């Protein structure tokens, strides 16, 4: 398996494990010695990440993260996902996420994201995913 394919698997396992409700395991398995966060609403480090995931799952216990695409180049992995905070609620169709992860030695060390609300109506029939 190439390093790029391995990096993709690491990120997918990290992301799914965390949002399934076990951010501590995601960190233990996949965080590097530092974790630099570029989202201005989130702090650096594993404790901040755990707090965020715990808060989000507490507010939205049924949330579902569906990773639609994973692309990678070198030490960067990008996921395109649908975060559905309230599955089945037509008034809250969720968010489209583009997450960028940088890895060092097979560990997640840096994160950027772009978040967009999924609109109720679209000017085209293509869908966001």
TrEMBL record:
Source organism superkingdom: Bacteria
SUPFAM superfamilies according to UniProt: NTF2-like
Domain SnoaL-like: 11-111
UniProt protein name: SnoaL-like domain-containing protein
InterPro entries in alphabetical order: Cyclase_SnoaL-like (IPR009959), NTF2-like_dom_sf (IPR032710), SnoaL-like (IPR037401)
Pfam family of the protein (one): SnoaL_2
One Gene Ontology biological process: polyketide metabolic process
Species, as recorded: Streptomyces coryli
Leader sequence residues: none
């Amino acid at each position: 398996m190439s390093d790029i394919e391995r990096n993709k698997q690491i990120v997918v396992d990290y992301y799914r494990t965390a949002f399934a409700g076990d951010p501590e395991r995601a960190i233990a398995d996949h965080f590097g010695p530092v974790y630099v966060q570029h989202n201005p609403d989130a702090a650096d480090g594993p404790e901040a990440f755990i707090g965020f995931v715990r808060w989000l799952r507490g507010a939205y216990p049924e949330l579902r993260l569906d990773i639609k695409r994973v692309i990678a180049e070198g030490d960067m992995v990008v996921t395109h996902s649908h975060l559905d905070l309230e599955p089945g609620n037509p008034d809250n169709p969720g968010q489209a996420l583009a997450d960028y992860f940088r890895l060092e030695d097979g560990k997640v060390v840096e994160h950027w994201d772009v978040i967009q609300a999924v609109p109720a109506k679209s000017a085209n029939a293509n869908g966001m995913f």
